[in-house]
Specification:
The chain is an alpha+beta fold and 420 residues long. The chain folds into three domains: 116 residues, Gcn5-related N-acetyltransferase (GNAT) (Aminopeptidase, 3-Layer(aba) Sandwich), CATH 3.40.630; 162 residues, Aminopeptidase, CATH 3.40.630.30; 94 residues, Nonspecific Lipid-transfer Protein, Chain A (2-Layer Sandwich), CATH 3.30.1050. The protein contains ten helices and 21 strands. The strands form four sheets. A seven-stranded mixed beta sheet has the order 1-2-3-4-5-16-6. It starts with 9 loop residues before the first strand and ends in a 12-residue tail after the last helix. The structure holds coenzyme A.
């Protein structure tokens, strides 16, 4: 429900295909950005190719677009690995002159209804600000660490002798081979979503541009002993000339490996690059083996940790049945959902050797929590105990917290490298 007398003229509805330009211009203005005609054409092309245009809604004041939102259909990888259909919410904006009147709230309600109709059982998004989405039942579920590694005196422990091979390839070769590696990885890693072909075109186009004083991206692909591609790194460099000689900084924009050998080999390659004094890496998973591979682990500093994907469960039983668990067990969980009150209730989760069953129950709850907390816990990267120590999960049966941790935790940190 939109708030206030003058605001009732605002109506939320799907956009017509010829309004895509106005839609993109509105959300650019809301993000304080101007958009060049070239960029506008590129957006339009990608959105037409990915079908987003059919799923875009806008808030209209008369014929003027004053708020925007869209979703993309994704398969989100969940622990197992398994996957569930989700709505990837994007392009959320309200013009500065229309804010704090309930327009986002109304658009979110509409997005959730449409997602349910399409059989999408959860919604996911990246948040521009951490304060916005908790109220709608989203919780941060993947995280992104940034590293800085001084490489001058770093030795990398293993001498990798995996029979594999590294090849420095150009962007055209990368475009042919890298998406397959990355998308295979996305289907294995909880929290990941495979990137659509059109978005790969954009990714490589961007990689071919210089950014913030950094070079275009370089690409190196790892092949296993059977000459199958099983990992890659993309990186940029910034040059500096010191009296002692060149000292570049390398920024790893993506390093993805399908095998442990490829992982070690690719990091070894990056850390041993000549003429480099520092390696930075963005959007890394919260836990990974790199620190353990260095003779001096202190050289790796985590410079920041931010949230990645936020997850909002829409169909709680389907979501809980859709993932796998580390051990068998039964739990009853009372979930409170103020934004979608129909979800509020107690659910019995039974995990047996043949999978999970989840349904509403009249049994007493072992644990009580909000739907946003369940969203954070869902991918297995956050522990029930941690949230309980913050009074965000209530344990009503002794032992239930530990049991929930054992069942839900993922042995590898959920991680998403696909932006949308
Ligand atoms: C974020 C944004 C879409 C919110 O739109 P809006 O129509 O003003 O949101 P609503 O009026 O529905 O807000 C609902 C509630 O959330 C709060 N809220 C929304 N955005 C907020 C923000 N950025 N900071 C603090 N509170 C916010 C409102 O105060 C309101 O609280 P209340 O119900 O207690 O009064 C709008 O501020 C915007 O376009 N920001 C710039 C672009 C952006 O960041 N988009 C999000 C991309 S992920």
């Amino acid at each position: 429900m939109l708030r206030g007398g003058d605001r009732l003229s605002v109506e939320v509805r799907p956009i017509a295909p010829d309004q895509l330009g106005a839609f993109i211009r509105a959300f650019s203005a809301a993000f304080l950005e101007t958009i060049s005609p070239d960029d506008l054409r590129q957006w339009q092309r990608t959105w037409e190719r990915t079908g987003v245009i059919d799923r875009a809604i806008a808030a209209y004041d008369g014929d003027t677009i004053v708020g925007t939102s869209a979703t993309k259909p994704f398969q989100l990888t969940v622990p197992g690995p398994a996957s569930i259909p989700v709505a990837g919410v994007t392009a959320v904006s309200v013009l500065p002159t229309y804010r704090r009147r309930g327009i986002l709230t109304e658009m979110t309600r509409r997005e959730f209804e449409s997602a349910r109709h399409r059989g999408e059982i959860a919604a996911i998004l990246y948040a521009s600000e951490g304060v916005i989405y908790g109220r709608y039942g989203y919780g941060p579920a993947t995280f992104a660490a940034h590293y800085s590694i001084t490489t001058d005196r770093v030795a990398f422990v293993p001498a990798v002798q995996d029979g594999g091979m590294l090849a420095l390839v150009d962007a055209a070769e990368g475009r042919r081979r890298i998406p397959e590696i990355a998308n295979r990885h996305s289907r294995l890693r909880p929290g990941s979503i495979p990137r659509a072909e059109a978005n790969w075109d954009d990714w490589f186009e961007d990689a071919g541009k210089e950014h913030d004083g950094m070079s275009e991206a370089f690409f190196v692909i790892h092949q296993d002993r059977n000459r199958h591609d099983d990992g890659f790194v993309a990186y940029r460099s910034t040059g500096a000339s010191l009296p002692t000689g060149p000292r570049n900084t390398v920024t790893v924009t993506r390093l993805t490996a399908l095998s442990d050998e490829a992982y070690v080999s690719l990091w070894g390659y990056v850390l041993h690059l000549d003429l480099v004094g520092e390696v930075n890496a963005g959007n890394r998973p919260l836990q990974e083996p790199l620190r353990w591979l260095m003779t001096d682990p202190r050289r790796l500093r985590t410079t920041s940790v931010g949230d990645g994907l936020w997850v909002r469960l829409l169909d709680i039983p389907a979501c809980l049945e859709g993932r796998h668990y580390l051990c068998v067990g039964s739990l009853t969980v009372e979930v409170r959902d103020a934004f979608c009150p129909a979800n509020t209730g107690t659910y019995a989760l039974e995990v047996g050797p043949n999978g999970a069953r989840c349904a509403r129950t009249n049994l007493n709850a072992d644990l009580v929590l909000g739907v946003a907390q369940l969203g954070s816990l869902y991918l297995g990267g956050v522990s029930f105990s941690e949230l309980a120590h913050g009074t965000l999960v209530e344990e009503r049966r002794s032992g239930a917290l530990l049991q929930a941790d054992r069942m839900f935790m993922s042995p590898i940190a959920p991680w998403c490298t696909t932006d949308f």
